[in-house]
Amino acid sequence: xxxxxxxxxxxxxxxxxxxxxxxxxxxxxxxxxxxxxxxxxxxxxxxxxxxxxxxxxxxxxxxxxxxxxxxxxxxxxxxxxxxxxxxxxxxxxxxxxxxxxxxxxxxxxxxxxxxxxxxxxxxxxxxxxxxxxxxxxxxxxxxxxxxxxxxxxxxxxxxxxxxxxxxxxxxxxxxxxxxxxxxxxxxxxxxxxxxxxxxxxxxxxxxxxxxxxxxxxxxxxxxxxxxxxxxxxxxxxxxxxxxxxxxxxxxxxxxxxxxxxxxxxxxxxxxxxxxxxxxxxxxxxxxxxxxxxxxxxxxxxxxxxxxxxxxxxxxxxxxxxxxxxxxxxxxxxxxxxxxxxxxxxxxxxxxxxxxxxxxxxxxxxxxxxxxxxxxxxxxxxxxxxxxxxxxxxxxxxxxxxxxxxxxxxxxxxxxxxxxxxxxxxxxxx
Length: 429
Ligand SMILES: *Cc1c(COP(=O)(O)O)cnc(C)c1O
What we know:
Number of helices: 12
Helix content: 25-40%
Order of helices and strands: HHHHEHEHEHEHEEEHHEEHEEEH
Largest sheet: 7 strands, mixed
Bound molecules: pyridoxal-5'-phosphate
Radius of gyration: 22 Å
Mean pLDDT: 96
Number of strands: 12
Oligomer: single chain
Structural class: alpha/beta
Strand order of the largest sheet: 1-7-6-5-4-2-3
Low-confidence stretches: none
Distance between the termini: 25 Å
C-alpha cells in the first residue's frame, strides 16, 4: 500500500497503536454517551440564546472609534449571559487572557481595605503577582490595599467548607474566590452542582453580602449548568479555551449578576463610561460562531481526554481523573515514571499537531516557575488550549497536563502517536 492509501502509515503510526486505540474506544461507549448527553443539552441552551437575541448578519459588522451603540458587542454580552446561566456578561476581544479578565473582575469588586478569601487554596500561577501573593508589582490588588487570605483544599481535593466559613467570619471578606479547574495541581476539578452548590450555600448563609467569584477556566460546557446556576455571583473564563469553541481568536468573558457585572464594567473601561464604549474593527462573527460550536468542541476535547486516560490506564499508568469519572474540566493529568518519558510524551503531542508539527519542544526555564517546563502546542490560535496541547514541569512526580482537541478524530491520532513514542522509549528503540 502506498502512503496515500494508508494515511496512518504516512503519519508513522504503528498498526499496534491503531489497534490499541480502537480496542480502547470500544470500552468507552458509555462514558462517551454521557459526554454527548451533556453536549446536547448545552447545544440547545446556546441555540436558544442565539435565537432569543435574534442574532442576524448586522451583529457581525465591525465597529470603530468609541463604539457607542455597538449592537454586535451588546448582543454578544446577552447571548453569553444566557448560555452561561447568568443575568449579564461582558465578552470582550480586548481581554488579553483569562488572567486579564479575572484581574479585571476582582479589581471591580474589591476596594481598599477589603479582603479577598480564596476557598480553593492557592490560585492559578499567573494570578499570584496580580493579587500580590508574590512579587511587588505596581497595580497589584495588594498594592491597592486589598488583603488576601486562603483556605487550602482538603487532602482529598475538596472544599473545606467549615474552615472557609470560619475564615469568612473572621476576616469579613468581601469576595470569596473559587477555582473550578485543577490548574497545575494533582486534584480533580470541582463540580458546580455538588461541590460548589453546598459551599456557596454555606458562604452566602454566613455572609449574605459577600460576592462569590469563580475562576471558570476550562470548565464551561463540561456540565449541564455553570457555577452561576448554583449561586456564584460572578464567573470568568478565557475565549481561547472552551467557550470560544476553537474559533474565537482571543478574548475573555465575565458573567454574573447585573449588580456585579455593572460594577466590573466601570473598571473595564473608565468609571462613568463603563460598557457604553469599546469598538472592535474585527468582526464579532467568530465569537458568536465560537460559542455556537463550544458545546461540541468541549465534548470533543472531553472525549480525547477520556481516551488518553483509558489508554494510559491500560498501560498501567496513573491518571487523574480516571477514565470513567465525572468531569468538570477538560484537563487530563498523566503521571510518568521518568523525565525522559514526560518529554517524549510532550514531543509526540507536538508531532501530532496541525501547525508547527516539525518543531521539537525543549524544557526551558519559564519565568515564574521553580523548575523547567516543557510545552507542546501546535495551534491555529497562539497558545489556545482548547486545541490539543500538553505541558508539564520537569520535576517529580513527572506529570503532564494534556487538554483540548478540536475534533476527536484528531485527538485519537494524538493518543496513537503518544503510545508509539512511549513504547519506543520502553524498548529502547
Ligand atoms: C487558563 C487558566 C487561567 C487563565 O490563564 P490565561 O493563560 O491567562 O488565559 C486561570 N485559571 C485557570 C485554572 C486556568 O486554567
